[in-house]
Write a structure and sequence with these properties.
By secondary structure, chain A is mostly helical. Chain A contains eleven helices and no strands. Chain C is built from ten helices and ten strands. In chain C, a hairpin with a 2-residue loop joins strand 1 and strand 2. The chains are: A mainly alpha (310), B mainly alpha (259), C alpha/beta (280).
Chain lengths: 310, 259, 280
């Protein structure tokens, strides 16, 4: 026997109340979970800040590490981290973008390309210490780069390469097919389409991906320990900029270095309680740098999205 | 108008009917112009121009046929007969063009009414052409003038009815071209005068035939000629009604105005 | 009224005012001819033995139900199918006057696309300025001179009947235009390179009626400059805009003739069924 064809108003309302309740319940659950996560993060951060409060100040940033906690600073570590990030970015960006362009625009869609794609994404899951070991054998010994800023940069570049590749591919994919068709329709070659249209419109996404990769790399400790970052460096690598022609100097690439995570690890492992404060302060600063980089990434994405709305 | 002007006017496209000056291009206020698509404008313009040209030809046919009858001008009658296929060709052309226009441009509202109205006008004009043909045939049959001619007896009426009916035709077609309701209504009211003239002519003819039985056949033919001219007036009225239809006057009102 | 029952015979001599065709249909030369054209998407035999002549400087419309192959056929003309994997052409589309086979393996698709332009269904201007959109095709061809670029961009924008609306906004983003304007911009972009054939793939299906009317009017004017091939699922549009109409069904060409003939008295019943809505 068929029921009445349509529901009466009361029936609709009765069912609706229950469904709307469920709706609200989910919102509550979601918000609570979000609050918990953010709360934990906030607590961690505040804890660090509180522990390191005594050490915040210009001397902390401008001093080299020292055996005496109150004199120890993060200058060499901060500079080392910055230089490494510079190398990482310079290496990872072109490699990652080129690989992504090839995979997205040029590679024929067959089983071989499929295998490449799977492996690229898998690379993101490789434990970072494995990268360290790879770098030790390849860059430090076989290529003879030694335990230098260059090696660290290359290692971390390899580490974040999958992130850059994936982010770039997503941005390339986001360029609508219609735009490509329009460009091809005018007689453009594949490279011209990529260069004149696909790449420029993907810049936002690519930069975002790069910065997210960097913000991951900035905190990686295992690989750079493996390749030999030292932790007591009371000197800075040679400055890249000199006063005389050619104004650029690459000596710094070959120099020994330390990095923020290393420095923190070193301080935390000291028996002296005073160094805990240093570690906390360094941690807070590192966290701050990471948040700042993420903020920049979001801002860039926002600006580009405003300019280009399909 | 001078001969060569009229010839030139008739041969060029698009041209105005013989008795009218070349009409100025439809200016602001012409409801059938102004489409985004120039093709539609041009098609409607061409349809109207064809109708107007055909009317010019047909009006001349009527006048010439009656003149041939009154003056027993056989060559003129032959001329009228020879132009009959041309009249039919115009009608066929108007029919085909309006059909194509409707099929290709899917007109609605006033454009659609205009296309339909013009096709029907073509039909009415073709029938007027047929009436002229019959009068021309009669002109050929009747031979030379005789004092007891039925045609002579009602000559004045024939002439007057020809003038009236062609005048009505001319105004009706002008009403079509300009989309003028006033002109169309004037044509509708003129018909009464034509009917009166016809009634008078019939009475005259009857009194003539009662006096003299000798010319019975030509008398009957003369009666048909008079009837034919009355019909021309009716066709002019139909054309005027099509104008009202085209402009958007509803069926009920149109019926009342015809009566 | 003028005394016209006394018409002088001389004034209406038997000129036989023959109704010469006021708009004679010119016998146009063929611009392109498809001969025994077949096309496969993978194993799908999408076009079957198409033989069709596209007359020069006329608008030819392709109509037919969804999936009949009209867009597929259109895209053979500028080798857009080459961007997909696993496509195969057989037969020829011969472009006059050099008699180049557009779908031949020896013909470079990029070269084909430089001679044959396309306007797509959804307006797809580049997210650049109005000027740069139109100039892109010219830059591809190596034209760098600013003056020359400016002249040709203006000419193209005028040709697409949009110059007056954008002449003061040339450096504004193209995405700020309305839908109809964007489509006319895309037409200008295609016109800038002075193509020999301009392909339209359902160009107004995403637009409102007024924008559609403007573009239809533009298409009928464009025929003086370029040969037009247009695919439309709107038959009435084909009737309004084209000189010749080709009806396709299931990958085959059923009938092609002058548009007036197709829409008043088509030769094939299948065509008549489709255009009167008795199909399916």
């Amino acid at each position: 026997m068929a029921a009445t064809a349509h529901m009466t108003l009361e029936e609709i309302r009765k069912g609706l109340t229950w469904r709307k309740q469920l709706d609200k319940v989910f919102v509550l659950i979601g918000l609570s979970l979000l609050a918990i996560c953010l709360g934990i993060l906030a607590i961690l951060f505040l804890d660090l800040v509180r522990d390191g409060a005594s050490r915040f100040g210009w001397d902390f940033i401008a001093s080299f590490p020292s055996r005496r906690a109150e004199n120890a600073g993060i200058l060499s570590a901060a500079v080392g981290t910055s230089l490494i990030m510079l190398v990482t970015a310079i290496v990872a960006l072109p490699l990652g973008v080129a690989a992504a362009i090839y995979l997205e625009e040029y590679a024929p869609k067959n089983w071989f390309t499929g295998i490449i794609e799977i492996n690229v994404t898998n690379l993101a899951g490789v434990p970072s210490i494995v990268y360290g070991l790879l770098a030790l054998g390849l860059f430090v010994y076989i290529f003879g780069f030694g335990q230098s800023v260059l090696t660290a940069g290359l290692t971390l570049a390899l580490l974040i390469l999958p992130i850059v590749v994936v982010a770039t591919r997503e941005s390339l994919r986001a360029v609508p097919k219609a735009i490509r068709e329009a460009a091809y329709g005018l007689g453009a070659t594949r490279w011209e389409v990529t260069k004149d249209h696909v790449l420029p419109y993907s810049t936002g996404g690519i930069l975002t991906g790069l910065i997210l990769g960097l913000s991951r790399a900035i905190g990686e400790t295992a690989p750079i320990i493996t390749i030999g970052a030292l932790s007591f460096i009371a000197f800075l690598p040679p400055s890249p900029v000199t006063g005389e022609f050619p104004f650029l100097n690459f000596e710094w690439l070959w120099s020994s270095f330390t990095a923020m995570p290393i420095q923190m690890f070193n301080w935390v492992s000291r028996p002296d309680q005073a160094f805990q404060a240093n570690a906390a302060a360094a941690g807070a600063i590192l966290l701050g740098m990471t948040l700042l980089m993420n903020g920049v990434a979001i801002y860039i994405r926002y600006r580009f999205r405003k300019k280009i709305n399909w | 108008m001078q001969t060569d002007e009229r010839v030139a006017a008739a041969a060029d496209a698009p041209s105005a009917p013989p008795e009218e000056q070349a009409r100025a291009e439809a200016d602001a206020g012409d409801p059938l112009e102004g489409h985004t698509s120039k093709t539609v404008d041009q098609s409607l313009h061409a349809l109207r121009m064809h109708a107007v040209e055909m009317a010019g030809l047909v009006i001349d046919q009527v006048g010439s046929a009656v003149k041939a009858l009154l003056e027993r001008d056989a060559p003129l009658a032959e001329l009228v007969l020879s132009r009959e296929p041309l009249v039919n060709a115009y009608d066929g052309r108007l029919d085909q063009d309006s059909l194509t226009f409707i099929a290709l441009q899917q007109p609605v509202a006033n454009d659609l009414r205009a296309a339909r109205a013009i096709a029907r006008v073509g039909l009415e004009l073709e029938r007027v052409g047929d009436e002229s043909k019959k009068i021309a045939h009669f002109a050929l049959r009747i031979g030379s003038v005789s004092a007891h001619d039925p045609v002579v007896a009602v000559a004045r009426h024939l002439r007057h009815m020809a003038e009236l009916s062609t005048g009505m035709l001319r105004n009706a077609v002008r009403a079509l071209d300009e989309g003028s309701v006033e002109l169309a209504r004037a044509v509708l009211s003129r018909d009464k005068e034509l009917d009166r003239e016809y009634a008078t002519a019939l009475r005259q003819l009857m009194s003539y035939v009662m006096q003299d039985h000798q010319f019975l056949k030509p008398t009957i033919d003369t009666m048909f000629a008079l009837k034919g001219l009355e019909r021309v007036g009716d066709h002019a009225k139909n054309i005027a009604e099509q104008v009202l239809y085209m402009v958007g006057v509803d069926q009920e009102t149109r019926r009342q105005e015809r009566a | 009224m003028a005394g016209d029952t006394t018409t002088q015979r001389e004034e209406f001599p038997s000129i036989a005012i023959t109704l010469e065709e006021r708009t004679p249909t010119r016998a146009n030369a063929a611009k392109a001819t498809a001969e025994k054209l077949d096309f496969w998407y993978g194993s799908n035999h999408a076009l079957k033995d198409i033989n069709l002549t596209i007359p020069e400087n006329q608008v030819t419309a392709l109509i037919g139900p969804s999936g009949c192959g009209k867009s597929t056929f259109l895209r053979c003309f500028n080798r857009m199918h080459d961007l997909q994997p696993d496509t195969r052409y057989q037969g020829a589309i011969t472009l006059r006057p050099e008699n180049v086979n557009l779908v031949g393996p020896e013909t470079d698709p990029i070269e084909v696309r430089m001679r044959i332009g396309m306007v797509f269904q959804k307006p797809n201007p580049f997210p650049k300025s109005v000027f740069e959109n139109v100039a892109y095709g010219l830059r591809l061809r190596g034209i760098k001179n600013r003056t020359e670029l400016a002249e040709r961009v203006e000419k193209a924008l005028r040709g697409a009947a949009i110059w007056d609306e954008v002449k003061n906004r040339l450096s504004d983003s193209a995405l700020a235009l309305s839908g109809g304007q964007m489509q006319r911009l895309c037409i200008a972009r295609a016109l800038a390179t002075e193509p020999e054939i301009l392909l339209f793939d359902e160009p107004t299906s995403a637009l409102d009626p007024i924008a559609t009317a403007k573009i239809e009017e533009l298409i009928t004017e464009l025929r003086q400059r370029v040969t037009v091939l247009i695919v439309t699922h709107n038959m009435q549009q084909a009737a309004r805009v084209s000189d010749f109409t080709a009806f396709m069904y299931l990958g085959e060409l059923v009938e092609v003739d002058a548009t007036a003939k197709i829409f008043t008295n088509p030769a094939k019943k299948a065509t008549e069924d489709y255009i009167t809505g008795r199909y399916g």
